[in-house]
Amino acid sequence: KKKKELSDSITLWFCRDLIPFHEIEKEGLKDFLKFHNVIQSLSDVPCSSTLSRRSLTRIYEDCLFAVKLKINGDNPNMVSLTMDAWTDNYRHKPFMTFTLHWISPIITQLKSCVLQTSFLPHPHTANNIVEELKKALTRFNLNEKIIILVTDRGANMIKAATYMKVERISCIAHGLHNLVMVDTLSKLLEVNKIIVKARTI
């Protein structure tokens, strides 16, 4: 049991700080754990495959259960769902993140939680986005809720909302970003030179 708790704690630590699982094999970390009596011997340190397969699965299931419990506890009739596609700068893989927002009818408080971040293969068509959205709604029992989508103004996002037959609102943050970065700063020559130089650092 103690080994399991240690493995899960290290896995959660690595996930939160975006530390690769193979770092557990480093001698410095092992010595640190032993010096501070976290482990009795170096053999107590879990291997990277234990972290990535067993512990990560347990943590995911616990987190999934906690999120469902949080939503079901309030059982809101109407929810807002923000969704955005982004690319990992390290491996250049595209992902889509869904975040749920609702007002608790019990304490009249705004609540939010990330539902999932999933790999979104190309092409990022409205149909592919709808498929990921349907999976998220089903996984968290949200199909019967009144849903308002908050997205950027991409044609694929707008079409996805149309296909789902739900109301869609444009994201203010994306609008401000485009106003400042695209419509304003990108047209100022001196500012643009600074941005280009900064990206090379």
Automatic annotation (TrEMBL):
Which residues lie in coiled coils?
none
Superkingdom of origin:
Eukaryota
Main location (coarse class): nucleus
Q: Which Gene3D superfamilies match?
A: Zinc finger, BED domain-containing (1.10.10.1070)
Localisation per UniProt entry: Nucleus
Report the InterPro entries cross-referenced here.
RNaseH-like_sf, ZnF_BED_domain_contain
Q: Which UniProt keywords apply?
A: Metal-binding, Nucleus, Zinc, Zinc-finger
Q: What are the GO cellular component annotations?
A: nucleus
What are the protein's GO molecular function terms? zinc ion binding
Tell me which positions the record assigns to the signal sequence. Answer: none
Q: Which PANTHER family match?
A: ZINC FINGER BED DOMAIN-CONTAINING PROTEIN 39, ZINC FINGER BED DOMAIN-CONTAINING PROTEIN 4
According to UniProt, the name of this protein is Transposable element Hobo transposase
Which organism does this sequence originate in?
Harpegnathos saltator
